Amino acid sequence: MQVARNKVVTISYELSESGKGKLEDGTLDYLHGFRNLMPALEKFLTDKKEGFSGKVEIGPRDAFGEFSEDMVMTIPKDQLEKPEEMQVGMQIELESKEGVIPALVTAVGTDSITVDGNHPYAGKTLTFDIKVLAIRDASAEELAHGHAHGAHGHHH
Ligand SMILES: [Zn+2]
Fold first, then answer.
1. What does the alpha-carbon distance between residue 93 and residue 101 come to, in Å, rounded to a whole number?
2. How far away, in angstroms, is 96 Cα from ligand 1 center?
3. Residue 156: predicted pLDDT
């Protein structure tokens, strides 16, 4: 069996920043062809067989986007609900036109804080070292939901 649309694929992966260190690793079941993975990764995996292993490098534009200075913002403390609780490294939620976005507190001053709303991997060129562990046909329910169920898939 080959990786194709409507197949549930089990992969293990190690994700690193190209030329730098490992960021994360894991195993997951995903439904191919439903944009559950970034398109560049689905394209790389298309037609691969069980047992395949290989590496692919994906630039920021096809991964988590370029780093945007506009996403680094200074917020006056009087606009915060609990300014006294703010600490560097904390994850907070910002309300924007596109909905709620997670942001990292990068500095805490006397009257304001600085937050970075970029994705943690924004601006990074990523290398995925991937193994295709298993491929199976998706169930009707999985196709209706648009994602994979099972051990490394969605739980609900
Ligand atoms: Zn589901």
1. 6
2. 28
3. 87
CA 155 to ligand 1 center in whole angstroms: 7
The class that CATH gives domain 69-116 is mainly beta
Residue range 114-138, pLDDT digits in tens: 999 999 999 999 999 999 999 999 9
Cα distances (angstroms) measured from residue 125 to each of 4, 15, 51, 67, 88: 26, 10, 26, 11, 25
Q: Cα of 15 to ligand 1 centre, how many Å?
A: 26
What is the b/e burial string over 42-70, where b = at least 16 CB atoms within 10 angstroms of the residue's CB?
bebbeebeeebeeeeebebeebbeeeeee
CATH 3.90.640.90 fits 7-63+124-145, yes or no: no
Q: In terms of pTM, does the model score above 0.90?
A: no
